[in-house]
Amino acid sequence: MGKIRSVTKMTDNRFLNMYHLDAENRLGGDVNYYVASRASEAAQMKLVKKDDTPDGVAIYSLYGEKRDRIVLVHQYRYAIDDYIYEFPAGLVEKKEDYHDAAVRELREETGLKLELLNVPGYMEKPLYTTIGMTDECCAMVYGYASGTICTDGEEDSEEIEVVLVDRKEAKRILKEEKVAMMCAYMLMHFIASEDPFYFLKCDEDRDI
C-alpha cells in the first residue's frame, strides 16, 4: 500500500485548491501526486480526516402531474468553454445537512420546490466523483419538483437554462449533446424505466 509523507497546499482559492502530495508507492519509490480539493486547508482533506462528508449535492427530480419529466440544467462551464447538461447541483455549506442543501440549491438554480423522497441510506451515500484528480465527495438526492421555473437566484458567474426533459428529449440529449457522466447514466435509466424511481424502492434488507 502506498504512503503519504506530507501534504503541501499550493493555492489559496475560495472554492477549490491544489495540493501536492509527497508520497511513496507500494515498492517504496517516490511519488509526486497532485490533488484538487474543496478543502480550505490540508487538515480538512479526506485523506487526513478519513471521512466521507459530502462537499456537494446533486438533485435527481421528476416534474409534472405525471412525473414524466426530469429537471436538468444546461449550463456554461469554463473547464470546457461550452454548455453541458447536468443535474441541478451545488456545494453543501458548513454545518448544513446535504438534504437541506439540495432543497436550497434547486430553489436557487431553478426556482422550483423540492419534495424529498425517503430512500434507504445507502442509496444516498456520499460518493467520490473523479477520484484520480480530486477528493471531492458528493451525495445524490431524489425527489419531486414543483412550481414555476425562475432563475433570479442565479449568480453572476453562472449561465443556466433550466430544462424539463421528457424521454424523447432525453434520448436526443444523450445522442447529440455534451452531458455530465452522472447525469447521463441516470438519463439512460429514465428512458428505460416506466417508473424512473423504481430502483429506490428496493428493500434495504433484501439481497440485490
UniProtKB/TrEMBL annotation:
Domain Nudix hydrolase residue range list: 52-187
UniProt-recorded Gene Ontology molecular function terms: hydrolase activity
Gene3D superfamilies, per database record: Nucleoside Triphosphate Pyrophosphohydrolase (3.90.79.10)
Lineage top rank: taxon: Bacteria
Keyword Hydrolase: yes
CDD domains: NUDIX_ADPRase_Nudt5_UGPPase_Nudt14
Pfam name, any one: NUDIX
InterPro entries reported for this sequence: NUDIX_hydrolase-like_dom_sf, NUDIX_hydrolase_CS, NUDIX_hydrolase_dom
Keywords: Hydrolase
Protein name: NUDIX hydrolase
Species the sequence originates in: Muricoprocola aceti
Phylogenetic placement of the source organism: Bacteria, Bacillati, Bacillota, Clostridia, Lachnospirales
